[in-house]
Amino acid sequence: MSGAPQPRIILDEGAAPAQRLDFGWEKAVAAPPAEAARWSSAGLVAGGIAVLLLGLALLEAGNFVAAQFARAAWLGAVTLAVALAGFGLVFWGIAREARGYLGLASVDRARAAHARGDAAALRRELAAWQARLPPGRARAGALEDMPMEAACALVESKVLAPIAQDAAALGRHAAMQAFAVTAISPSPALDALVFGWRGIRLVRQVAALHGFRPGIAGTLALLRRVAMDAATVAATDVAVDAMVRGLLSSRVAEHVAGEAAAGAVAARRMILLARAADEACRVIPRAR
Amino acid sequence: MDPLSLLRGVLDTAEDAARALIGRERLRLAVTGLSRAGKTVFLTSLVANLIAAGRGARTLPALSDAAGGRIRRVFVVPADTETVPRFDPEAHLAALAADPPRWPERTEDFSTLSIAVDVERRTSLGGILPERRVTLDLIDYPGEWLLDLPLLGTGFAEWSAATLARLRRGRRAEAAAAFLDFLDALPPDAPAEDALAKRGYGLYRDALRACRDTHGLRLLQPGRFLNPGPRGEAPLLWFFPLPETARGGLAALCARRYAAYLDDQRTTFLDPFFSRFHRQVVLVDVLGALHAGQEAFEDTADALAAIAGVISGANLIERLLGAAPTRVAFAATKADHVPTRARDALAALLEHLALGARGRAEASGAATAFHALAAIRCTEDAVATLEGRAFPAVRGILLNEGKGATIYPGEVPMKPPEPAFWDAAFFQMPEFRPPRLDPAGGSGVPHLGMDGLLAWLLGDAL
Ligand SMILES: Nc1nc2c(ncn2[C@@H]2O[C@H](COP(=O)(O)OP(=O)(O)O)[C@@H](O)[C@H]2O)c(=O)[nH]1
Ligand SMILES: [Mg+2]
Question: Has UniProt tagged this entry with the keyword Cell inner membrane (chain A) (predicted)?
């Protein structure tokens, strides 16, 4: 063969069967640790303005309190009390927002740990999450020294499945309301407004089932996630259609047959929304 | 193009446009390749690695980068009420990971699967808008059937003449000796008797099998003779090529069955599954063709060109309707059979081998590229000492024996080799055990170059 030797197979010495090759693939491709979210320039500007407003207001208030003390001790004390109360409320609000937002981030952390197969991190997240669940909700109990698959299965059946049922019930309730609104409301614009408000309330209710109490920022983040999951749910779920049909065969529907089409759409949206919100808040993804 | 398929084309194009508008594109990916080229393994690896990439693993780095890291989720689209069997990557993967491992069986039937890839939008508002979903439609099928595509435009007389001319040359003549004797003994006015037809069919089928299995030849038609599929060997298949001089009832019967066979293949296989593709991969076992000798090598090239003429060489109307693939990637599979430094040569050699096919694809306006890949990497680089000199080689575990072996695959030429090259004896590459795999496929499977191919093929669509 033009100079080069013939192809050939050279068997290893010895008769022992060899181990299969191992390229350490799992480690090589493991998801890189999530890099800290970087700030966009708009975020930097907004943050700067917030710091300026709050910081200058604090300084201003401090100066003002000091000046009042200079006038009279009682005047100073009252001013201080007012300033403390006011700023206290502001910071409390901020802290609550932050907690609500970070609570949602813990969902991402738990799911990432699950995807990586990082049992220790997942167990830690699950424990923290269970502690946050609203009182009265059944918990899966201690998950230590349990294989990851078993722990997930337990959490799924003990906690997540009942939550999903409750979420579906909330969805049905909202669907009935939405349906009723179309039947009586005078204008489509009002419909849209009511649906929007009811939808957001529904999403927050479902989040509460999962132990999240999102503030404004948290709700926005949540709505974004829900929008993503809604597509998946809509694409995969035939059960929703059956449920809507079941709902609409009730007597309410017969009375307002003319409105049934618009009502069906609204009701369907609510049921979907409840499912999508449940999907978005789950600490471990639904087994597909 | 008949009015009905034109109408269907227009409807499909409208659907594509509507889907693009709402961010729900469908991409039909044609994975073509002759039998044993590695289609089933390629699809298995593609699905496993895409799903792992959707979970954040860096299994397909070049694809992730081409998509700007915007791939958010990948999942198998749940089954609905399809009547076609489903391609089962989990079962294939489990068999590959099992101990002892098994490669997929010879594919006997169609199967399909759709993979949904959710990507964040490219715009600055991408984080807020719902994600785009690109659905990849995949199909697996017996490679032998592909060669029925070029038959569609060919009449019985024309096909018979071409096939018999080929059959009387070189290694084919040797494999088809019994069939050719039968033909020569057949009187020109042989009556339409099924005993005769069946006998001729049996001999012709055995000749095709011998050509495929012992001589590595590829341009073997019709496809269902080699791989009858789930419906088995129906009387429809009892025909065989006849010389022009045959004029009797048997000739008429064979011609009728030939036409009916093509009709059947068209309605059950080609029209539903092999029309309208957006992207195409052509998988070629280049090294296998090289090791099987000059005749097999050239036969592979002819077979590739014949298929490409049909799939990527769409006519003007079809192109305007977007029914022809816009990108056609050619890939030399099983690149783990050669050491790293020979892989570029493998891709270069493929470029020559697929010259005809490439011409057809480019004539219809598709972009083409050439790659070397291993869907499942089974070897590592090693050094073989031959005749006192060191040569780059590969080391893997042999499938059947379970023993380790170093394989020197010979020199891989960058272009069709000189005649002297072919003097060498034929070489059969052994099958390897796949490396240790996670049976659940959570982190995909080790591969070589899958990501580069997919980045080129799909990157712009994500
Ligand atoms: N080493 C190695 N062998 C492969 C690879 N892909 C396929 N093969 C081998 O090629 C054979 C045929 O592959 P298959 O996918 O069934 O071919 P198909 O007929 O085109 O579907 C398999 O049984 C394997 O032995 C690969 O990436 N690496
Ligand atoms: Mg196959």
Answer: yes
Residue with tokens 């409301």: A185
Please answer whether residues A230 and A276 qualify as being in contact, where contact means their C-beta atoms are separated by less than 8 angstroms. yes
Residue type, position A138, single letter: A
Q: Which helix (H) or strand (E) holds B295?
A: helix B294-311
Which pLDDT value is given to residue B119? 85
Ligand 1 pocket by Cβ (under 6 Å): B 33, 35-41, 103-104, 107, 143, 333-334, 336-337, 374-376, 378, 431-432
- In angstroms, the Cα distances linking B282 to B35, B100, B192 are 12, 30, 41
Asked if residue B261 lies in contact with residue B239, where contact means CB atoms within 8 angstroms, the answer is yes
**Structural domain boundaries of chain B?**
3-103+108-141+276-377+438-461, 155-268, 379-423
Classify residue A35 as left (phi > 0), alpha (psi -120 to 50) or beta.
beta
Confidence of residue B129 (pLDDT cuts 50, 70, 90): low
Considering the domain B3-103+108-141+276-377+438-461, what is its CATH architecture?
A: 3-Layer(aba) Sandwich (3.40)
Q: Which has the closest alpha carbon to B380: B346, B405, B362?
A: B405
Window from A214-223, B408-417, B428-437 with minimum mean pLDDT: A214-223
The residue written with tokens 């070397």 in the block is B372
Q: Is B397 helix (H, G, I), strand (E, B) or coil?
A: strand
